[in-house]
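Field: sequence (string)
Field: structure_tokens (string)

Example rows 1 and 2, in order.
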Amino acid sequence: MKTGAEIDYLGPQGGLMALAFAAGCVACFSFCAIVGRFVWAAIGKVKDDEITRIKAEAEADRDRCAAMEIRLVQRIQQLEGIILTIAPGNMRQQVQAAISEIRVEDRDHPQ
């Protein structure tokens, strides 16, 4: 085999170099695939557990927000009732009109 500058890259030595390069690429890909499989097996379980935990937190937040919304709507209705009982005659009619208008708008455009 020739050395250094005497290598014929387009001849048989070039073919051997290409074969060696291809073998190195295949070995590197195989090594990366094996390592990736082990890493994914380890991280995959942690990832699935984290996703499950986040979904459970989101569901709990949704339930908590729904309960809070119900309590707030009830409190608004209590405060409206208090305002209607305290307000003088003319003001009571204006408050009742405003409350009715808000309820109609909420019914027409639910969020």
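Row 2 begins here:
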Amino acid sequence: MRIDFEELKISGKLPSPPGVGMAILRLTQKEDYCIAEIAEAIQADPALAGRVIKLANSSKAATVNPIVSIEEAVKRLGVRTLKAIALGFSLISSYREGVCTAFDFEMFWSESLARAVGAQAVANHQQFADPAEAYCCGLLAGVGRLALAWVYPDEYAAILDKNPDLGDLDTRLRAESEAFGLTNADVSEFMLADWGFPAEHVGAIGDFCRGREDESEMTPARRGLVSALSLGQAIADLCVQDGEASDAWARLIAAADGIGVDAEGIRSLASDVASSWADWGAVLSLPTRSLPVFSPSSTAKAEGATSGDRATSEDAAITQATAREKCRVLAVDDERLSLKLIRHHLEKAGHEVLVASSGDQALEIAMQEDPPIIVTDWRMPGMDGLDLVRMLRRYERGRATYIILLTGSDDEEQVVEAFDAGIDDYVTKPFNPRVLLARVGAGERVAHLQEQVAEDKRTQQRQMKELAILNRKLKKASITDALTGLPNRRYAMERMQEAWSGRERLPKPMALVMIDIDHFKQVNDQFGHAAGDAVLQKVAEVFREQVRNDESICRIGGEEFLVILPQATLEDAAKCAERIRTAVASAKIDAEGFRGRVTVSLGVASSEQTDQGVEHLLNLSDAAVYRAKAEGRNRVVLADTPVHT
């Protein structure tokens, strides 16, 4: 099967937002829409209105006054974020169940919700991207999987049944490509672009779905969004973990380490995300699991796993030998004598044997104990052997189990039926103990081979992650000022060029605020360079607190800093500059060798004032700083015009 996007769109089968979601989508496709129209559309759905206000109040720092009206929510979130969240919430309401029984729709949305909350928290914590936009992208990043399961339920169910490791990204993409000629990443990109999502968001979601985390051609904004989604997914994996959580913790800590967040920091962040996930789950009526304990001890356990603290080769050899001597086998038969004989011969051969007298009991034990081998009778009352096999193959845990069927018939049609159901081997009854043990031995070899392959894969993935982490650390170091932790001049030049290139697509121009610390040389000369460094660090903290999520503050020289405002008029930038000037002048610095206050001079320039490129814009802001110093310092000056004294 090869899917054509346009034919798929024309067919009308793709998931689409109903009601208010579609109304907002249509409104925003018009050129003359206004905020009041969007607010009115949202208010038509009280539940959606409440969710939008909740997101708006969680998207900014706690110092921002809480909002209570839809109009305020629209202004705070922005139209494109609002459109995305309306689409996401509408899809959740309408696509909670479908024909594809192998695809858990509610759990899909629960995981998407956890990823959304996680990406939002990471974006807010690391300032990678706008938190509300990260939330929306996290919520809708898996829409391609939803579409494939919805439009092609039988084919997608077959993929799930045939691929026990579909949770693995490479396995999923390969299986989808073989079945459809494309992947869920392709479908997500097509649908989101068709809905009018920004190209930057569509590309970031595509990169995330394909596992691309640090491509050199990505813009900083796109890299930031992909990083937020990737770490959000790692937190989501921990939230939806249905068993031992140490592996999920290890993956999360490794991902967090790559962006400079330590184990304690990610423990706290994950705890906050888990709590918020449960809150949102209640709001959206989605299931949330009982979560693994986010404790320092479990974190330490996971850290140990990621640091390469493995058993010695001698210990591993002993463990493997013990496993071979005592492989766990689940024996299933409704006849007591037959079950007793099977157990006797298997235990005599050195195996650990679990027993069940019915298919239902066997399924429960298999889900709890995960035995590598199952020996089951075919003909049993209630759930028979083939029904048990089919049920097991529907779950990831049961797909890797080696299943041997006991049957009283060697009929060709029945044997074919049994293999079609998913068995790996069969033994005819009454069974020969030597033949049964030989077949179990074959299953044991397969189980050990699967474990070895899985271990090799884990080792390879761990090595790849370590390399990726190293690369991310090196890249982060190359664009970060070591003293203040702010982005450096290299990052500033790249971000300015990016904002300049995108200014025509945005409703507002871009602006720059150049900042210079007044009399900084005197601080160094009189109090020493250690005091000067302390002043730079304190001032950088003040700057960081005063800039908004979509603004970038960078250190570009000794005492020179630059604020990049991608969507700001000259007046907006002047207000930002004055806010920074006032905050610095009010901040008391208490460092070794220096106690007091400093002031800053600021120059403001906007792309409204020049069409000669970003270098000219930078020169305008620099010239304004010199004027501010010449006119007495501690003031904000617009290019050509002083605005404060």
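free_text_note (row 2): The chain has four domains: 16-94, 97-309, 317-450, 489-642.
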